[in-house]
Design a protein that fits this description.
The protein has 180 residues and is α+β, with helices and mostly antiparallel strands. It contains 4 helices and 9 strands. The strands form 2 sheets. Strands 3-4-5-9-8-7-6 form a 7-stranded antiparallel beta sheet, sandwiched between helices. The chain has a two-stranded antiparallel ribbon with strand order 1-2. A hairpin with a 2-residue loop joins strand 8 and strand 9. The longest helix has 21 residues.
């Protein structure tokens, strides 16, 4: 019995050493690790009591405390090394009662949109974020605006261009977002 326990312990130590030396996951770029995590993680739900909407976000994202944000706003983020992903939802006033087409024209020019889509009661915009001098950066955004009377319910995502493939699950969540 002692011999069996001794041999079992040696095999266990050998396997642990082999795994630590030959673990290929450590060699993967962070964007690929993020993509794997996004596929495997469960989505949490945040419910805003002020405006009665719900947002789904990855469970490993950190939530900014509501007390630090405006009424009706929520923020979830992930950052490590040079990768930062920020998912937000907020309420934007629409005092001029812009139509979807007018809003798309206005925001498309303001944000230098490279993709836009108008649906029934919503619009989706995405593109690169510009720096203070108007140059394109390696950061991107994707946002959905849902119109309700004189309000826009907005859910947006900002992310590093290198992790665009990794965050496709969140983009689909935003595209399929139903406020009510």
């Amino acid at each position: 019995m002692k011999r069996f326990l001794f041999l079992s312990m040696l095999v266990f130590i050998g396997v642990m050493v082999w795994v630590s030396v030959y673990d290929k996951e450590d060699d993967l770029p962070l964007s690929q690790k993020l993509e794997r995590a996004m596929k495997l993680t469960r989505m949490k739900e945040y419910h805003d009591d002020d405006y009665n909407y719900t947002v789904r976000y990855p469970s490993f994202f950190e939530q900014t405390p509501d007390s630090l944000l405006d009424k009706g706003c929520c923020r979830f983020s992930f950052w490590q090394d040079n990768i930062e992903v920020v998912q937000t939802a907020f309420i934007k006033q629409n005092p001029d009662s812009l139509t979807l087409e007018q809003a798309m024209t206005k925001y498309a020019s303001e944000f230098h949109v490279t993709f836009h889509q108008i649906g029934h009661g919503f619009l989706i915009l995405s593109g690169h974020i510009l720096d203070d001098n108007g140059r394109i950066t390696s950061r991107c955004f994707h946002a959905k605006f849902v119109k309700h009377r004189k309000l826009w319910f907005v859910q947006s995502l900002t992310y590093s261009e290198e992790c665009e493939q990794a965050i496709q699950r969140i983009i689909k969540e935003i595209d399929n977002w139903k406020v009510w």
